[in-house]
Amino acid sequence: xxxxxxxxxxxxxxxxxxxxxxxxxxxxxxxLHYRELNRLLRGLDxxxxxxxxxxxxxxxRYIGTGLEKSMSVDVYGTPGNDAGAFLNxxxxxxxxxxxxxxxxxxxxxxxxxxxxAGDITGYAMxxxxxxxxxxxxxxxxIHMKAYRNKKPCLVVGGTAQDFLGEYMAGGVLVVxxxxxxxxxxxxxxxxxxxxxxxxIYVRGEVPADHLGKEVKVMxxxxxxxxxIQS
Length: 230
Fold this sequence. Notes:
- The protein is α/β, with parallel strands linked by helices.
- It has three helices and ten strands, in the order H-E-E-H-E-E-E-E-E-E-E-E-H.
- It has a ten-stranded mixed sheet, with no helix packed on it.
- Strand 1 (about 20) and strand 2 (about 25-30) form a beta hairpin.
- It is elongated, with a radius of gyration of 19 Å.
- The protein starts with a helix and ends with a helix.
């Protein structure tokens, strides 16, 4: 197969970096260019790999871009911009922080971050789920959208910076505020600016003057709680 030849070619070039243990493909990404790393990930995806571990990641961009199969990729280190962009099914777990634009236009699958995420997290995501343990940067959830049976969900364990949910057109955005101190309020301003669809749930207080003019604060009801719990 062409895919097998592609994997063989890359494996030959980086033989000391790629190993298989208990059906888990393990990649040492230290010093590896992002194009080579992503080429290898796509080859493994096309060849039916189910579990991959990528270690020693230092800012490589686009990790997991366009992956489609039902696979699990564990990333150890700090991925660069656009991790999980156009993701279409796999589960991407980041054991650490990551940079901007995580989940850019993702369609299906999950992204789980055991740390912080940067700006424009979930940009234009149209399906799938993103879970961030800690805080996120500016413009998180910008241009999120929903279509028919696709309803993206983005959950932030901590708090967010300005322009949260900007231009949202659909989906669910949840901010839990678990990193805030007792009595501390969310500081994000211009929340929901330009928002015309979807819903934002925030645990904690958001001052009225921090909202975009298109939105207002409402109490959750039973249907909201059922949606959050699902």
